[in-house]
Design goal:
404 residues, mainly alpha, Ammonium transporter fold
Length: 404
Amino acid sequence: MDTGSTGFMLLACSLVMLMTPGLAFFYGGLASKRNILAIMIQSFVSLGWTTVLWFAFGYSLCFSGGAGGIMGNLDKAFLHGVLPSSMYSNGKIPEVVFIAYQMMFAIITPALITGAFVNRVTFKSYIIFLTAWQILVYYPFVHMIWGGGLLAEWGVLDFAGGIVVHATAGFAALASVFYVGARVNKVSVPNSIPLVAIGSGLLWFGWYGFNAGSEISVDFITSTAFLNTDVAASFATVAWVVVEWIHMKQPKFIGLLTGGIAGLATITPCAGYVPLWAAPIIGTAAGVVCYFAVQLKNRMKWDDALDVWGVHGIGGVLGTVLLGVFASKAVNANGADGLIYGNTGFFFKQFVAVAFASAYAFLFTYVMLSLINLVTRVRVTEAEEQMGLDLAIHGEKAYDEGSL
């Protein structure tokens, strides 16, 4: 066992775990005052329920089974055969550390979707959604790309989740908006921008574990992924602020925070595969493209309340495509050379893979919500929405206005 890599991966695992509460704070601050707890619980419940699913069969479906498939098998259900001394395939860290690290990815991915349908979905239907979406969207793409499955054999790369996490979640969010419909009252201002800033800071901090940790060891690629992550996020932040300042005539703090998240989502598939000089280009592209994706969403009147599609969906797609452009084997011998190095085939594979993943996540989510609605009501009533889901569903309030 490599104790240095093991210690780093335990730290990275903890950082990725912290991203889910960070996401809850980010979304909680953006939500209206009457829906703070309702959106936050949708993130926090994944910490518990996704862990149960992962222990029972999620890890096995993702990381067991033969090569080239769509889904793994149940050989490691309930972590059967996993011993304290079992090692991950790279021979550097215990398998239990890898299990925990990948579980944190499974926890946060469906939680990303919730920002799209804030204050419109019943909690019971969300739990069913969380379960089915994990099993039939997230697990297959993890296995196909990170578990040695079909897309991995084809040569598709995704360092930390541009396809697996952001594209699938972002386009699932858009499908959920189309199915659930618009809010009764779309005039909803953030209840606490400082809370959004806290959540944003935790997400950015955790993203170092998300991206650098995806090397699953400590080496030169780990440090490259770490710096690429920060540089791209910083350039995206600046690009978003500049574009929004020109467009809206004012620099917005919410825009600055959102731009950072867009940059982080976009660099995610690229972090350990592209040279350092590409990170500013990728980050700048993220800030500009994701900003205009959000503006398109507004013009089309798609009620993606917290811009999940524009930031995560488009960010994931953009990052995956740009990986097809800038990837370099000089950075990572296990990667590929991209379009600028003459490898048009790899660029084509990246484009097709992310288009397929986005389309599948969109269509499956729409159909799944339709089926869930046959079992239990998906959308809350207008009276519940007007009251706010904190009280209507959970019987709680985020703030006691009567307290001093």
